[in-house]
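Exam review. A common question shows you a sequence with its structure tokens and asks you to describe the fold in words. Practice with the pair below. Do the first one on your own.
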Amino acid sequence: MGTPTIESEEHRALRKAVAALGTRYGRDYFTRVVAEGTHTDDLWAEAAKLGYLGVNLPEEHGGGGGGIVELSIVLEELGAAGCPLLMMVVSPAICGTVIARFGTEEQKRTWLPGLADGSRKMAFGITEPDAGSNSHRITTTARKEGGDWVLNGRKVFISGVDIADATLIVGRTEDARTGRLKPCLFIVPRDTPGFGRSPIAMELSAPEKQFELTLDEVRLPADALVGDEDAGLLQLFAGLNPERIMTAAFALGMGRYALGRAVDYAGTRQVWKEPIGAHQAVAHPLAQAHIELELARLMMQKAAHLYDAGDDLGAGEAANMAKYAAAEAAVHAVDQAVHTLGGNGLTQEYGLASMITAARVARIAPVSREMILNFVSHQSLGLPKSY
């Protein structure tokens, strides 16, 4: 009888293969790309060639036929090697999933093969300056005009718009029956007239830039609408749950990378008779960080399995919990890694200090930890809503 395992042999093999790819590039590659102001095109292209970018997309459209379980493994292992690909969260996980589940056959044929083989990218636009975590306050609107849609609004903190062929924009349309605004998703090609972008200066070391978007009378054909006009909320959360799961994978990879650097340092850095890792004041915090990362991974795996099984409700709860746990674990792991290295932890040579800012992103985006606690207290525990 074999030893029980949470991951299948195929998943363990996938982890090993992706880890090998990540090791060939590593943190030095990532740091150089950031310093040069360029993009991780080489790694993106090789990951695509090996089938990793589209591992979650349908086989009939060039993907691997897997799910978010497999895609989260890919992102986590690249992150653990020090070279995460943020656009994996957006392009195949959010946009690819939404189009695969709800897009028309034409939309699937047009977009999924390119998203799967890495030749095309898609950004995702939901956050707005005056809405923040409250998606019910989204003011980007879409009105019907003849056979077209016309969009107006603003978006902020949208990743990778400059390198994306299109952006999946969350807008709101008026329900003809109730007059209320309801969410809908539109594919907006990058060069569409009226679709403007301006970069946001960030104190963040990342190849992917952040943008503010303006939509000024952006006219789109009828087939720019993804899925059913009356099923926008379902379609929206079909993208948001993978986003949370993949953010957890991103955070876990980052935490594992930082912890690995700290463990290597603690095992070799000698100030007294033994390496500093022999002292409990150094060893125990690192052990605690490892435990927290492993626990967060378990919740991420649960969320991914629920999502791939079609349990959107169960996946929603687990995805929020996974994102929360992974973000907290990553922040703690990075902080402890820097502290373990002391002054060396703040040097460019070791490359950990810049991760202090990067780790906090997972606490803030795509939804704050406070909003996750609101969700859990209300949805999971049945407590009254506070907002």
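Now try the second one, then compare your answer with the model answer below.
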Amino acid sequence: MNVANEVLGDEILRQHFQIWQVYYPTNMPLPINHTAIRRTVDETLLELDPTAETLASQGIVLIGHSMGGVLARLMVSSSQGRLWSEFVEQRQLPKEHRQLAQQRLAPLLRFEPLPEIKRAIFIATPHRGTPVAGNRLGRAVSHFVRLPLTLLKEFEDVIRVLANTDAQLDGTYMNLPNSIDNLSETDPFIRATANLPISPQVHYHSIIAQRDTSVPLEVSDDGIVPYASAHLPGAISEKVFIAGHSVQETAQAILEIRRILHQDLTEYSN
């Protein structure tokens, strides 16, 4: 809310932009949150602008911080069949099991960039994961994260197939990672999605935080996300600010977001 208020404190931006905030359960696995957010955006745009004629439907600017940045990256990327190959094809499942996986997992593992999004701003985003999620504290926190029972039951059959196990489900089901697991630098999903191609129609920008200036930038971090994970080749701009992981609320980051949004207005007006 603070970031939204600061952005709309700029009168020109207030006249030309409206802010939609996406809320999602942060304990859910990234693939499921990503699919749900895509569906919500599609349904909302269809309801408000069924003919897709307004600029609001044509030139969306996506802004994501931390886990939200990872989800934003997926929304402008193409899976190109890589995730399906990584998580299903290589298992050489029997025909009936493969059909089940196709029905249940294809929406999570096969996707293309949302065409309405033309620009993205990634803030302190662990595109390649973070060691914090896999360290002792991260594992301890992950242990206390419980996935909704409805989710576990919904995917129970296909998880059993992929895991080749008859183990019983419980609140910490062994083969279904939660959001903290997904952000580990060793997590299979984050590793598989790290190099998915971003749509050439999307101009993207990075805002990165460096906590300790005595450390060379290339090996620095913001306390949670390493620079090497937040850096994206091909970004239109990359700004590094001296701050911690909550860099999005700093004055420098707010001014940079405003600058990018003004740039977006200028390019569309031309």
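Model answer, second protein: The beta strands are 60-65, 117-123, 203-210, 237-242. The first helix runs from residue 2 to 7. Full marks require stating both points clearly.
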